[in-house]
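Final report, closing paragraph on structural work. Over the funding period we assembled a curated collection of sequence-structure pairs, and we close with a single example.
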Amino acid sequence: MASSRNKYSVILPTYNERQNLPILVDLLYYTFTERKLDWEIIVVDDSSPDGTLERAKEIQRSYGPEHIILKPRQGKLGLGTAYVHGLKYATGNFVIIMDADFSHHPKFIPKFIDIQKRTGADIVTGTRYRSTSSLTGGVHGWDIKRKMTSVGANIISDVILAPGVSDITGSFRLYKKEKLVEVMDKVISLGFTFQMELMVRAKAMNLHVEECPITFVDRVYGESKLGGEEIVEYLKGVLWLWWTV
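Its predicted structure, as stored:
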């Protein structure tokens, strides 16, 4: 399919991202318009108490409803269901999943797109733990405990699940929409392990996955949502996937 006919749908789950969202949308706008790409951003807000939805409405008035689609939900319903919900409204043939807290910089999206075009990949996933001659993966803004937790989580999943990617806990990815729909139909996890299950299922389905080194930066504004409960859920999720997939 010619690039001029491709459309990229970005799904942004938000919770208390009032300060980050305008900056991110502006950079996404610049990224897509610079390359003359067709795009839309689907904001799935889970009743943020900080006024994220009101700010999103202001952004929609600035960029137009054809580019900013608001699909809020009542209550904090979880990351996995937010992606499922947003996908229902995606009109692009490619879907980009990324965090709204500015940990994922839009400058890497053109690299994802180039890799997909060159390889025909079904999925291009960002990795913090692999580098190439032109790109270096890494993490900035984390203390040693957070870094060790992330590295340890990926080592555990690699040993137990052998997912075929170096950063299974990452959540910055480009999908062919039809392939994402197929994988999501099989995914059961709805919380912190959602992204991990997507990749494990994708491997089981023999989808073509490529990696792109990215630099992950800790959130600009607000507090991290990773806590002890999420870590326990992750470990339980690894064992559950090992048993079922």
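The beta strands are 7-14, 38-45, 68-70, 94-97, 123-127, 138-140, 173-176, 209-213, 215-217. The chain has a mean pLDDT of 87. We thank the funder for supporting this effort.
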